[in-house]
Amino acid sequence: MISAADSPDRASAASGASGTPASRTRTSRREPVITAQSSPVRDLLALTERPEVISFAGGLPAPELFDETGLRAAFAAALDGDAAGRSLQYGMTEGDPALRELLAALLVSRGTSAHPDEIVVTTGSQQAIALVAAALVRPGDRVLVEAPSYLAALQSFQLAGAVPVSVASDEHGPLPDALDAAIAEHDPALLYLVPTFQNPTGRTIPAERRAALAEVLERTGLWTIEDDPYGELRYDGTPAPPLAGDPRLAGQVIAVSSLSKVVAPGLRIGWLAAPAELHRALVIAKQATDLHTSTVTQAAARHWLAVGHLPGQLARLRDAYRERRDAFVDGLGAALPEGSQFERPDGGMFVWARLPEGHDAQALLARALEHDVAFVPGAAFFADQPDPRALRLSFTTQAPDGLREGLARLARAAR
């Protein structure tokens, strides 16, 4: 009897013409095509998991402030009786219709014009950015971004084959004349902005600058992503009107947001509101990615929002984070080398600092880790021309006493 392994047909199929094993003569094997750099924030998380490390690195919400009681009840409701069958079944790609109504109402309360039919529920706002890139960006396209910009958005654009290009910016955000010039020079596919309490800088584009940017965008017709995961975390000042609510930009701005920073990141509930012209393409892109966002977490999020937990949760977060921001900013000047510069943000989770001439943030991080304190060097947040003296620090995950101890360690490292 001839076994399959001994079959002449099988043997010849497994060998080349010269008898060389086929595995040695294959010519179709490809190298990985992913060329985007790993996130230094994610890479630092492994180090900051050590309990002795005080981390100013990750942009994480404070776990002790999660509404565990409300979320337990929300998941119980999602899995109660007949609701369980719906919560555990496949769902619509666009998302739970009742949840989309709640999310559209939330955007309207912020000043954004949005209809439930424009909403696509996504697996975090990170997926929303990636879906827009998949729908609008071709390999080689330019995408305009702030200087600096949100690191994971830069990665999404790079994975789509785009080349992120920085628009010259100041402490108030992108310069309108620079945006106009960049559009003329690069013919970009889209513009990406985080106008309120930006990651990484914490800055907010004021109303006057937004209006000037809107004039440029209206005239050029450039697609724009307005990413707003932090806008509800305001501790001082008055909100500026969103670009997505500007009637001049109707049908041009994709509003992106998330429950990660104000409810819990583990839910992975984000969303986008897209004009009808783009909506169908985004739904198809999501179908090809994951069919739909988890139905059970959508059901829990819908219940949590419908019961009315969000206003109280926001008030709780604002009170706690305002105290932490004040403790952190009040002590930061003494912790950094003399001559360092930074601003007090009106909200959000981040402080952006710049070391004086002759200092390097990466070198400071190496010394800081020896003292069991961490932050993120700012160079990775630039699409081009990185600033080696910049650093991003987050104040949300530590109570004031922990912040002060972390700043004392940072001061010893800086010396």
Descriptive overview:
This protein has helices at residues 8-13, 40-48, 68-78, 82-87, 97-109, 124-136, 151-159, 176-186, 207-220, 276-290, 295-307, 310-335, 361-370, 400-414; strands at residues 54-55, 119-123, 142-145, 163-166, 169-170, 173-174, 190-193, 224-227, 253-258, 269-273, 341-342, 350-354, 373-374, 376-377, 390-394. It has 415 residues and is α/β, with parallel strands linked by helices. The chain has 2 domains: 40-66 and 312-414, Aspartate Aminotransferase, domain 1 (Alpha-Beta Complex), CATH 3.90.1150.10; 83-307, Type I PLP-dependent aspartate aminotransferase-like (Major domain) (Aspartate Aminotransferase, domain 2). A 7-stranded mixed sheet has the order 2-10-9-8-7-3-4, sandwiched between helices. A 4-stranded antiparallel sheet has the order 11-12-15-14. Strand 11 (341-342) and strand 12 (350-354) form a beta hairpin. Helix 3 (68-78) packs across helix 11 and helix 6 packs parallel to helix 7. It is globular, with a radius of gyration of 24 Å.
